[in-house]
Design a protein that fits this description.
It is built from two helices and 15 strands. With 301 residues, it is an alpha/beta fold.
Length: 301
């Protein structure tokens, strides 16, 4: 809804209050007494429209004649904001604006705000919480990049007076480690690391271990391996280790190991042939797969 759009006859300025307002409640009037009917007048419509408009703008909505459900949406947003303990953004993409209660006109060091953004950012961004727009940056002070603040996302930011910036107190999207790979620097602690296991099959004597697909390869040894391929090792200067497990099928099998695989003393192991028993081997490379150091972790297990 937009209370400032009319079919015709709209004025360029808001109406003034009547000089003598009629106090009380509306009536249909009675011509027999006579009592005239109540006339709301332009000022009454103006008051009602502006009251409703204030609800929309407080919820970050722009009044529009194209929608008849904005008031409902605004009320829902304001309820969500109250229960979620955040301020609603009423600004534009990358230029976030919130009204705090009580309102402020200057920022103090350590001031923390929690904001629900209406629009995603497209790059470097600002936040105005009442004391003027200042840079909104990630937790290490770097400028934001596109989609670091998603549409509808909630972020918490703390004002640091020495930098005159709001710092988002958590990782943003551009700081996340990509699923397809990336580097983490500095000390990293982990209680447990879960590796990915795959089960490649022997096909016509060929077996391929794709090092980009996992680090544990569980292979049913149901045939001789005459062509073993180790694909997608990391680039030189990076290292990788992986585990190869052979499960015997009751028949003695042989493996033609590539020349790049180096066994202790240059002697490759004899594989277990007892049905259901497993051999475990560990491999390590740091030169893009030119050589693999191979170790027997356990056999006939």
């Amino acid at each position: 809804m937009d209370n400032r759009k009319w079919e015709s006859g709209a004025a360029g300025t808001p109406p003034a209050a009547p000089a003598a307002l009629s106090a009380g409640y509306p009536t249909n009037g009675d011509p027999l007494i006579p009592v005239p009917p109540t006339l709301p007048g332009a000022f009454w419509f103006h008051q009602m429209g502006e009251e409703l408009r204030a609800v929309l703008t407080a919820a970050g909505l722009t009044p529009s004649t194209a929608s008849t459900s904005q008031l409902l949406e605004a009320i829902q947003r304001l309820i969500d904001a109250q229960s979620g303990n955040y301020a609603l953004d009423t600004g534009a993409a990358g230029a976030y604006v919130v009204a705090l209660s009580p309102a402020i006109t200057a920022y103090t060091d350590g001031l923390t705000v929690r904001v629900k953004a209406v629009n995603a950012n497209a790059g470097a961004s600002t936040l105005n919480a009442g004391g003027g727009a200042v840079a909104l940056v990630n937790d290490v002070g770097a400028g934001l990049v596109a989609d670091d603040v998603p549409a509808g996302g909630i972020f918490t930011a703390t004002y640091i007076a020495s930098a005159n910036k709001f710092y988002i107190t958590g990782l943003v999207a551009s700081q996340a480690l990509s699923k397809s790979g990336g580097d983490m620097t500095g000390p990293v602690g982990a209680k447990i690391i879960i590796e990915t296991k795959t089960a490649p099959a022997i096909a016509a004597g060929a077996l391929t271990l794709d090092l980009s697909a996992g680090s544990v390869f569980d292979v049913a040894l149901n045939g001789a391996i005459t062509a073993l391929t180790l694909s997608n090792p990391p680039a030189s200067g990076r290292a990788i280790g992986f585990t190869l497990i052979f499960t015997a099928d009751g028949t003695a099998r042989a493996v033609t190991w590539p020349a790049s695989i180096k066994w202790p003393g240059g002697i490759a192991p004899t594989l277990t042939s007892v049905n259901g028993k497993k051999d475990f081997f560990s491999f390590y490379t740091q030169d893009a797969g030119s050589t693999y150091q191979a170790f027997i972790a356990g056999q006939n297990l």
